[in-house]
Amino acid sequence: MHNHHGKMFLYNSADYSTGYLALDAAQLNQLLKTLVEKIDRDLRSQVSLKSIKPHDPIQVQHIPTPWQLLGTGNYAAVFAHPDYPDLVVKMYAPNRPGFEDEVEVYRKLGSHPAFSQCFYAQDNFLVLKRLQGVTLYNCLHTGLRIPKQVILDIDWALDYARSRGLRPHDVHGKNVMMQKERGLVVDISDFLREGSGAAWDDLKKFYYWVYRPFFSPLRIRIPLVLLDMSRGVYRCLRILLKRNA
Q1: CA-CA distance, 37 to 155, in Å (whole number)?
Q2: Are 207 and 149 in contact (CB under 8 A)?
Q3: Which of 5, 133, 148, 190 is the most exposed place for a label (fewest CB within 10 A)?
Q4: pLDDT of residue 3
Q5: Residue 245: inside a domain, yes or no?
Q6: What percent of the chain is predicted at pLDDT more than 70?
Q7: 79-118, pLDDT tens digit by residue?
Q8: Helical axes 224-240 vs 198-206, angle rounded to 10°
Q9: How far apart are the C-alpha atoms of 13 and 25, rounded to whole Å?
Q10: Are 187 and 108 part of one and the same domain?
Q11: Hey, is 152 helix, strand or coil?
């Protein structure tokens, strides 16, 4: 980790595994500097993030051109700028928890091909390596075939996280992705909390016992309403059986 005038750069330049791989440390610092200037000048000064209810996605207003909103969660929103196609900015809503924990998780993870990577963090926003792909949830919905290698990659990534002193849990179909038939883990924000990892174990059982023998050969598409119903039933069963995710 490098600290420049109170600003945190959380990368080893040799680990920069996006499209900017050819950049040396000085060039990478300059790239991040120009992006952070755009964030401070354009994005943070204009965008509005409001968290109305803790369990609902935050509301985002006044997104300046040419910034794009990629997604929202209960605590944060993710933005992209067309001049920086391999990076995203994750910004936490005011008075919402999680920023410090997420920075710490990325510090422990360092560089790994199945995870994103944090290059800069300050004032409730992080600059992260952009992960492209399709969530396993959407693969089930569209009938896109999920190779076994994707599951093995995610297993390998979660084992790596445990080896770094983290506790991966609540890993489900919406926060893991497939890119070019390889597995990625998208959401690491809860990896400091206690959890059993049962959600991922249950998803693997579904994959090996149901998906591979029945769904995959027929390329069955599961309607979104059915996927959401099954997630709700699964959550209720987990509560009844007192199983942590």
Answers
A1: 38
A2: no
A3: 5
A4: 47
A5: no
A6: 84
A7: 999 999 999 999 999 888 899 999 999 999 999 999 999 9
A8: 130
A9: 5
A10: no
A11: helix
Q: Please report, for residues 23, 47, 48, the alpha-carbon distance to residue 61 in angstroms, rounded to integers and kept in the order given.
A: 34, 6, 5
77 in the same domain as 18: yes
Output the pTM of the full model: 0.83
The answer to whether the CB of 220 falls within 8 A of the CB of 214 is: yes
Q: How far apart are CA 188 and CA 105, in angstroms?
A: 7
Q: Tokens for 115, please give them.
A: 């995870």
Tokens of 97: 């928890």
Which pLDDT score, from 0 to 100, does residue 245 have?
56
pLDDT at 127: 96
- The verdict on 102 and 6 lying in the same domain is yes
Please name the amino acid found at residue 116: S
DSSP H/E element including 60: strand 59-61
Residue 175 lies in a domain: yes
* Domain end among 105, 129, 153: 129
Q: Check: CB of residue 53 under 8 Å from CB of residue 73.
A: no
Q: What is the separation, in whole angstroms, between the first and last Cα of the chain?
A: 31
Q: Which of 95, 129, 163 is the last residue of a domain?
A: 129
Burial per residue of 69-91, b for 16 or more beta-carbon CB atoms within 10 angstroms, e otherwise:
eeebbebbbbbbbeebebbbbbb
DSSP 13: G
Say how far apart CA 71 and CA 77 lie, in whole Å.
Answer: 6
Same domain, 139 and 213: yes
Domain that holds residue 193: 134-240
